Every structure is written in C-alpha cells, then in structure tokens.
Amino acid sequence: MRLTTTRKNWNATVAQWLSGEGGFEDRNKEKGMVIRGWAPQAVILTHPSVGGFVTHCGWNSVLEGVIAGLPTICWPSFGDQFMNKKVITNILKTGVDVGIKGRQISHMDSVQLLSRQEVERAVRSLMDGGEEAEERRQRAAKFAEEARKAMQEGGSSYKDLDRLMQFASQKDCNGAD
Known about the structure:
Layout: H1 10-19, H2 24-27, H3 41-45, E1 53-55, H4 59-68, E2 72-74, H5 81-92, E3 95-97, H6 116-127, H7 131-151, H8 156-169
Parallel strand pairs: 1-2, 2-3
InterPro entries: UDP_glucos_trans, UDP_glycos_trans_CS
Keywords: Glycosyltransferase, Transferase
Region (Disordered): 127-146
C-alpha cells in the first residue's frame, strides 16, 4: 500500500514501528542506534565502520560521499539526481545504480517501487569482495584524497573560495562597486 492512499496517521505509524514494544529500536538496541531528527550525515559517512552509502544523489550528498571516499548505491528520485547518478556510475565509476527506470520531473510523478531482489543486487554489487567492487573502493578513496587536496590551503577549491570572498568584499550591500 502506498502511503498516499492510506488514511493512517503516518507519524503515528512510524513512531509505533520505531519505538513500540518489539519495534525496530527495541529489536536492534544491541546492534546500533537510531538518530531521530537531523543527523550529521558528513560525520556519519566518515566513520570507519561505514563501507558504503545509499543516496538519492542530491548534489550535497554526492559531495559528502566523495569526500568520505565511499562507494555509493544510487537511488535517484527526481530532477537533477538522475544526472548526478550518471556522474557517479559512468564517470567517477564509484557507484552502482539501484535500478530506477525512467526519470521523474517532480515528487508529484508516480512512485516507482523496486523489488527486494533489485535492492539486494545493488548492495551485493557494492559491498562484495570481487574485483569490480575493490576497484570501485579504490577509485572512491582516490577521489576523496583529491577532494581533500582541493580544500587545503593552496588547493583549487580553497583558491576559488578565496577569490569569491575577495570579489564579494569589493561590492557594497547594494551590489554596486
């Protein structure tokens, strides 16, 4: 059943699933934790126990995944996320496509569901010990190192931000020179 067709209170349903007796948190309290609300994604992605990243391919998430040096499962939903997926899978070659077909322009387009097998295929492709997965991990680590160098003093991103700040400081609040 799609959530858009149910009359149940979505927040109450999720709260019950998470914290009700025998709920997700209760069943997994010895295995990890659930962060409610905002989570520091960039910090989580750089934790040594994280070996991969499932992302909708929003640009900020793409950058956080690159900086963390993680191979990625790409699960775009609309807009530019499909182009970002192509960058990750076809150009950087650090990710795998979960298998979404077509392209949605907005959240209002029909929802496409994936089978358990399609999700499992993507996870196994990303995380197994095969040669292709190892090459993907090595490329991700290489791009992370390049990103770190770009952000260090003297790096390309550092220089570009410095130039932007110099340009902005030459303008008054109304945009005049």
